[in-house]
UniProtKB/TrEMBL annotation:
It comes from Gluconacetobacter tumulisoli. The keyword Coiled coil does not apply. InterPro entries: AlphaKG_dependent_hydroxylases, GBBH-like, GBBH-like_N_sf, TauD-like_sf, TauD/TfdA-like. This is Gamma-butyrobetaine dioxygenase. The lineage of its organism: Bacteria, Pseudomonadati, Pseudomonadota, Alphaproteobacteria, Acetobacterales. It comes from the Bacteria. GO terms for biological process: carnitine biosynthetic process. Its EC number is 1.14.11.1. The keyword Iron applies.
């Protein structure tokens, strides 16, 4: 297609016609800072070789033309000609009309409820070990839905580390490199009892919070003990649709979370239960009734409404219509996005045994592995 470029405001910006005939404006300083020539970016890793201070304050575009899908700009006062891929510029355009409403989510994310059913992202362990395509498909499902299952693993202590190594590294905490999830006498955490657990995110008292949790089943002959997952983003958006004011209160004010169950350990964090990025993107859910401390950052005049919204958020999370339930068999595991998906467990009886091992990892490793495979294949999986 034909691409046209026009210099604006005496070279301080340009207007570029991209795909579909859309016109996108770019500032000269942004274009110079995002140049990909060999003196600005390191070949291979793409890291910048210059700082913003190396770019003249009076930078402007003195000449511009398009040819063969590329934009050629001459920058003054450097008198430097730099080429840009027009497709890259179109993908990274920031000249957009309208603002997104608070609570928007990234396009790769799909919210869900109990109707998710058989669409649970699931893969066989040996398949994802030997096939990068299968691994990418599974990781893509976790990115989209916030959790995924693996079947066909060995029934051996420590196998959860093999799951973590598929995409990243274990994040060690005061619970150790991993933790055992089975009934204990005088446990330091209610997870180590046979009691049912309300849907929750783990470790909200940490900052930063572990962004992934891995649970690996070694024994599960006890009656009950099914795993439950709930999409916190879906619950938050339901609350927003029902009660915009309540949603705003849970995003505006910090809650307090704390843990002091082990000797020498006292963890505390202040964060909203529903966290938005500055541009309104829904990015994090922190919800754990067991670890919520006294909430003190809400003004008196808002506290009653805050608690009403908190109660409704609880109701939505506990709604059976929000739950996806499954029972892990020995050798099976699941990975959960701890910034989005809440997990729970039904109570189980003393007869039989239930032994899971858990550990934490970080989502940046998972997303990095997925992005690298997608880049290698030249497309999103």
């Amino acid at each position: 297609m034909r691409h046209d470029v026009e210099i604006l405001d005496d070279g301080k910006a340009i207007a570029l016609t991209v795909s579909g005939g859309q016109v996108r404006r770019f500032h000269a300083i942004w274009l110079r800072d995002n140049a990909w020539d060999e003196t600005t970016r390191a070949p291979g890793n793409g890291q910048r070789l210059i700082t913003l201070r190396d770019i003249p304050v009076e930078t402007r575009v003195s000449a511009a033309h398009c040819t063969s899908g590329q934009l050629f700009l001459t920058f003054a006062p450097e008198d430097r000609v730099i080429a840009y891929d027009i497709g890259w510029l179109a993908d990274h355009a920031y000249d957009r009309t309208g603002r997104r409403a608070p609570g928007w989510i990234a396009p790769q994310i799909e919210t869900w409820d109990a109707s998710l059913g058989a669409r649970i992202p699931q893969a066989d362990f040996s398949e994802v070990v030997h096939s990068r395509t299968a691994l990418a498909a599974w990781l893509s499902g976790i990115r989209r839905y916030g959790f995924g299952k693996l079947t066909g693993g060995a029934v051996e202590s420590g196998c959860l580390f093999k799951v973590a190594s598929l995409f990243g590294y274990v994040r060690e905490t005061n619970y150790g490199r991993h933790f055992e999830v089975r009934t204990e006498v005088n446990p330091t955490n209610l997870a180590y009892t046979g009691l049912g657990l309300q849907a929750h995110t783990d470790n909200p008292y940490r900052d930063p919070v572990p962004t992934l949790q891995i649970l690996y089943c070694l024994e599960n002959s006890a009656e009950g003990g099914e795993n439950i997952v709930v999409d916190g983003f879906c619950a938050a958006r339901r609350l927003q649709a029902e009660d915009p004011r309540g949603f705003a209160l849970l995003t505006r004010y910090c809650a307090n979370f704390e843990y002091a169950g082990s000797e020498g350990v006292y963890l505390h964090a202040r964060r909203p239960m529903i966290e938005l990025a500055p541009d309104g993107e829904l990015v994090n859910i922190r919800f754990n009734n067991r670890s919520t401390a006294a909430i003190t950052d809400v003004p008196y005049e808002d506290m009653a409404e805050y608690y009403a919204a908190y109660r409704r958020f609880c109701d939505l999370i506990d709604d059976p219509a929000m739950e996806v339930t499954f029972k892990l068999s020995p050798g099976e595991s699941f990975v959960v996005d701890n910034t989005r998906v809440l997990h729970a467990r039904k109570g189980y009886a003393g007869a039989g045994s239930r032994w899971l091992q858990g550990c934490y990892a970080d989502k940046d490793g998972l997303l990095s592995t997925l992005a690298a495979i997608e880049l290698q294949h030249g497309k999103a999986m």
